[in-house]
Amino acid sequence: MTHTQRIKRYVQFFGSFAKTLEVLAVWENIKPCARILVYEDDAPKTISYLRSFPLQVVTADFKIDLWQSSTASGYSSKGGIIPVSGGEGRKGYLVLYVSKDLERALAAKAAEQAQDHASLGAALGYPGCCSRFFSHYAQEEQKRHNTFIRPLLEHSARTGALGHANHHGAHQFPPAYPFQNNIFLRAQDICLLSHIPCSLDCPKSLEEGNKMMRLLQRYSASIAQEFGAALKKGVLVTEEGISILLEGTAITGATVSIKAAASPDPFARVLVEQLTRAKAFEALPQGGILVEEMIYSNYTFVQFS
Ligand SMILES: [Zn+2]
């Protein structure tokens, strides 16, 4: 069996590319521990499969009811927490900590149980800057959408995520961010990072993304290439976690022209239709975008390359 066939088989088993990458990263000693969500009916077979690698698997004492999640495309797993043995028979997702080192998996479990974000981040091998960022905004985000997109954009471009006027008064977009840090395709199961970067140009996250990219290249050059191409995109994002993916972006002043727009999110349907017709939008100085004379104040444009 070739590596590409093997990776495809894993994806089929785990039902997700992101989970496959996480498990491979642990197996190949790139990550010390992975935290993966598994639908509880699938958990016994997933756990025994992981143990056959062999990997250590520890299960959290709670499960996550993703139906309570406020956003389908947000990935921070905002969901109701129910005890594993409770929930009046309500089904949920189990949290598995997967590692070669049992102590490490137990430490991750204990840290999450205690809601100690810094220790959980350390156990999972997340960059310190990103763990601190997560810790700092965790409470605030719980009251909002729990996507961390607002602080992420604020940290990414302190001059304003949508750019600013230069000294000639012309609109200036921030430079494109590295595709390794593009977390906005997670709903399409395309993402190299398992944590939220503290900034879209976080160098530590870029390093993590490169490690995952090299791992993918080792397993399948063709899949790695597809991944890279998919992540090098323009995106329109909201802090609720809605992403619209833009093909063929070209920037002239404050105007972004596009070849195509798409989104997995039904809430974005009207705007996607407008963008598809207009093939362009304008960034507004106060934030937000203008499309066909309609203002969408909650969308921010970010380019990855
Ligand atoms: Zn960081």
Rounded average pLDDT: 89
Elements, N to C (H/E) = HHEHEEEHHHHEEHHEEEEEHEEEE
Terminal CA distance: 33 Å
State the shape: globular
Rg over CA atoms, rounded to whole Å, is 20 Å
Bound molecules: zinc ion
Describe the structure.
The chain has 305 residues and is an alpha+beta fold. It has a domain at 1-125. The protein has helices at 3-14, 17-27, 43-51, 102-113, 117-124, 128-143, 149-156, 203-219, 221-231, 269-278; strands spanning 33-39, 56-65, 80-83, 93-99, 164-165, 171-172, 234-237, 243-247, 250-252, 255-257, 260-262, 280-283, 289-291, 294-296, 300-303. It has a five-stranded antiparallel sheet, with helices on one face. Strands 1-4-2-3 form a four-stranded antiparallel sheet. A four-stranded antiparallel sheet has the order 11-8-7-15. A hairpin with a 5-residue loop joins strand 12 (280-283) and strand 13. The longest helix has 17 residues, at 203-219. Mean pLDDT is 89; it is low at 69-77.
SSE layout:
Layout: H1 3-14, H2 17-27, E1 33-39, H3 43-51, E2 56-65, E3 80-83, E4 93-99, H4 102-113, H5 117-124, H6 128-143, H7 149-156, E5 164-165, E6 171-172, H8 203-219, H9 221-231, E7 234-237, E8 243-247, E9 250-252, E10 255-257, E11 260-262, H10 269-278, E12 280-283, E13 289-291, E14 294-296, E15 300-303
Antiparallel strand pairs: 1-4, 2-3, 2-4, 5-6, 7-8, 7-15, 8-11, 9-10, 10-12, 12-13, 13-14
